[in-house]
Design goal:
Order of helices and strands: EEHEHHEE
Radius of gyration: 12 Å
Number of strands: 5
Distance between the termini: 19 Å
Number of domains: 1
Shape: globular
Largest sheet: 3 strands, antiparallel
Strand content: 15-25%
Number of helices: 3
Length: 97
């Protein structure tokens, strides 16, 4: 279990399943200070995490969460991932296997 910075938690293996179901081997970080409803990157880790947070209108995919996920050994951080929502290069996580 990973505890979110602003309350709530999630199981990291659920994130692995979500990424695999997306058809990609990665997910962009997408941390954005906005309401969940107005989030510009619905394919991002930040958007996905908001379902587990106690405050879903608060950004969830902060750098601390990224570091905790990398420490599990299930993910590697990358700076050059293509955002499926904007087509821009973004920071995110790649599945380690």
């Amino acid at each position: 279990m990973i505890d979110l910075s602003y309350g709530g938690s999630f199981e990291e293996n659920e994130l692995v399943v979500f990424i695999r179901q997306s058809g990609r081997n990665y997910i962009i970080q997408g941390q954005t200070a906005c309401s969940q409803q107005d989030h510009p990157k619905p394919s991002s880790l930040d958007f996905w995490l908001r379902q587990f947070g106690e405050t879903p209108d608060t950004k969830q995919a902060d750098n601390e969460i990224m570091a905790l996920l990398v420490a599990t050994g299930l993910f590697q951080e990358s700076q050059n991932l293509v955002c499926p929502d904007s087509n821009n290069q973004c920071k995110g996580l790649v599945l380690a296997d």
